[in-house]
Amino acid sequence: MTAVTPAAPTATAAEVTRRVGFSHLLATEWTKIRSVRSTVWTLVIFAVVSLGLTGLFTWLTIRSLNASRERSAAIATDPVNFILGTGLGLGQLAICVLGVLVITSEYSSGTIRASLLAVPKRIPMLIAKGVVFSVLVFVIGEAVAFGSFYIGAAIVHSHFPVSLSQPGVTRAVVGSGLYLTVLGLFALAIGSLIRHTAGAVTTVIGLVLVIFNLTALLPGSWGAHIHAYMPTVAGLLITQDKQQSGQLLTPWQGFGVFCAWTALLLIVGAYLIKRRDA
Amino acid sequence: MIEVRDLTKRFGDKVAVDHLSFTVAPGRVTGFLGPNGAGKSTTMRLILGLDRPQGGTATIDGKRYDQLARPLAAVGALLEAKAMHPGRSAYNHLLFLAQSQGLPRRRVDEVLALVGLTPVAHKRTGGYSLGMSQRVGIAAAMLGNPPALLLDEPVNGLDPEGILWIRNLMKQLAAEGRTIFVSSHLMNEMAVTADHLIVIGKGKLIADLATQEFIERSSDRSVLVRSPQADRLGELITTEGGVVKQDTNGIQPAGLSVTGMEAPRIGEIAAAAGIVLHELTPRLASLEEAYMELTADSSEFGPATGPAGPAQAGAPGPAGVSAPAGASQPADGKEIAP
Questions:
Q1: I need a surface site. Which of A206, A236, B252, B326 has the fewest CB within 10 A?
Q2: CATH number corresponding to B221-284
Q3: Tell me: the pLDDT tens digits for B75-129?
Q4: B125 vs A contacts (CB less than 8 Å)
Q5: pLDDT in tens, A117-132
């Protein structure tokens, strides 16, 4: 490395006076999110796992249909839910990891200091991060949701013809992308609270895969209500084209409940980001 | 202009910064000195709005950091060197910082050239050496071409070439009229870089003075003389106007510490009287010793009673520093286990 010290270039007057707006924050967060490999890899894993497993599970199931009349009947009642529930159910974990990483990697690497020196107003920074991340997940999530539907629909077509024009099907497919977007923000909010990658990933996946579902075991009517209002339990309703009997919430109500939980966590996260030493 | 007024920060029961007040003026390098744990980094983080103070204010040109419209154009900061994502390239690290200030991409290329990192700009910073990471930090600090710079221990862990580079850069930036505020725990490093010194210990202000003043105050010039006829020589020197003290450190023959008289004159007196000399050494009390004496009571991890005063080894010049744990740093900036 050379040890030269050329004169410091001076900023032009236009550069100094130019105002900094929210669009600059969006550009900043977009550069941050696209310039690390973990973003690309988690999204590739998400797409491959979701599309691949949808194809594999539906194909294996169709092949063995004749062996199990019961299974055949179960799929026949709701083939769309069968298609969307296989690959995306596992693929969603990659979105959880990415949501956490988007914020915790700043803390673990120390980038958060550089970020906050550049943007000392912490809440606008968090909002810009949330906007950029959710747009990214929405676009990829919708693409993968439609991809999964078409792959699954093609495989099950000869036995159970499904199409987007059937009632509730388009809403369920679009809803899958919406669910993934809010799930990503839910993970981002947990990341902003916990700030450590491993702890936050474990927490999010533990909540989504285990804790929220375990509430199904709670007895009685109040148990059923608690279960119905758990974030991802409520959120998943929008990914189902048919309402189950005895369902306490409609798909959009469920999605609203999931959004409300996520908003609440994001507000707590924003408050803590503002309060805590970086 | 950086102003700190009555700044206080506690972490639990521990007071890190204790009603600290000082002003950092533009156009010169101000050294921020103190032993490890004195609160230097915390003070800088408070100035930069990363930590919230319990009391007092820190302002840059009259504004709190989070009130600055474009902070990187008002003050550049270098905190810890590796504060960047290891998977992101230096270019992208600087690019998102530039975008946050509405600065053009051209500015990223300019600061990369300034620190000499253009050839590796698109490599991931995880593979960078400490010196290269430090340069990325300097580039980030210079991005907004700010009139003020805060540098926290910028030479720590750098090789001599890197140290010289940082030193010259700081002097050049100060000469351009910028405010340079640089922390260090190395007095010798600050003596050659800083024009002004702010010394803190245990979060409190100890001294706020010009470096020159500090050097003049602490330069205790003396001459060490050893002779088998020390008593006779001492009498002659006293008669000629010198001040003689016994230099007791167990080496025989006994030494005399003479002040108020230069070494050549002492030699002449001895020669005229036919007195044998074993040693005749001009001595300068080192700045490091004076600094350690100043901060002795406030060293966070030193012995409770403080060090036993300046080193008595009799070594000439500022080299011989025998210091308590936590306060001892050789001039090359590498940590040594006490």
A1: B252
A2: 3.30.70
A3: 999 998 778 999 999 999 999 999 999 999 999 999 999 999 999 999 999 999 9
A4: none
A5: 999 999 999 999 999 9
- Determine contact: B138 vs chain A, CB below 8 A: no
If you measure CA to CA, which chain A residue comes closest to B82?
A110
- Collapsing DSSP to helix, strand or coil, B49 comes out as coil
pLDDT, tens digit, 9 for 90 and up, residues A78-113: 899 999 988 999 999 999 999 999 999 999 999 999
CA distance B89 to B85: 8
Residue B256 pairs in a beta bridge with B225, B246
Which two tokens mark B197? 């010194």
Closest-CA distance of chain A to residue B302, Å: 28
Going from the C-alpha of B235 to that of each of A153, B8, B227, B250, B253, the distances in angstroms are 111, 55, 13, 21, 16
- Tell me the pTM: 0.82
Q: Which of B66, B79, B99 sits opposite A27 (nearest CB)?
A: B99
- Give how far Cα B136 sits from Cα of B78, B181, B304, Å: 9, 18, 40
* Range with top average pLDDT, A47-56, B153-162, B324-333: A47-56
Confidence of residue A191 (pLDDT cuts 50, 70, 90): very high
Of B68, B100, B132, the CB nearest to A25: B100
Collect all residues of chain A within an 8 Å Cβ-Cβ radius of residue B71. 117-120
Min distance B85 CA to chain A CA atoms (Å): 5
A-to-B residue pairs, Cβ atoms closer than 8 angstroms? 135
Ranges for all domains in chain B classified under CATH 3.30.70: 221-284
Residues of chain B with CATH 3.40.50.300: 2-216
Which CATH code for domain B2-216? Answer: 3.40.50.300
**Which residues from A are below 8 Å from B94, CB to CB?**
none
How far is A211 from B93, CA to CA, in rounded Å?
Answer: 38
A41, amino acid identity? W
Which amino acid is located at B174 in the chain?
A
Domain positions in chain A are 22-275
Q: Does B66 touch chain A (CB under 8 A)?
A: yes
- Residues facing B29 on adjacent strands: B180
